[in-house]
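Lab notebook page, bench 4
Experiment: in silico fold of construct C2
Operator: M.H.
Input chain length: 174 residues
Purpose: comparison with the prior construct
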Amino acid sequence: MRTSLSRLTAPLAALPLILLSAGCLGTDVAGPVDPQDLTFATSLGVDLDAMTITASGLYWQDELAGEGNPAEYGNVLTLDYSLWLHDGRLVESTTSGDGVPLLVDGIAGNPPETGGWNQLIPGMREGLIGMRIGGRRLLVIPSHLAYGPYGAGPIPRYATVVFRIELLTNSSAD
């Protein structure tokens, strides 16, 4: 069974109404925090000094390399993931409860509601590139590559988020 990206993107659909009713963002908004200035829950296993940082500010580390062709933008992927806040609070996971793997079906999704690459947050899109089947990758995604000044559902504004992703399948989007 597959699941769509709606769990990741649905909270953003109501964003314009939320901002209008809240009088935009108000004055209580803390700005973005550099991941280097955060203390990560030890249970997450985050060691920023051991991770690769990209030009955009994404931190990533392969925990298990995997095999086969590397994922490329637009490939059809199936993956398991868990998403945490930096303090270790689990936001959601496809690996617990009745969770099912996430299908990333091409660029826009086929059909669109299944969720394509363009429906992923920028840090997750960037972090999937190069993964191989069976590989497991840890991502630390700063707010500007995640949910930014708006947050989403239980994810607060300007939150740095942590993903652990395991790539289950990878095929071309032909």
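Observations: Residues 4-29 have pLDDT under 50 and may be disordered. The first helix runs from residue 6 to 13.
Next step: discuss at group meeting.
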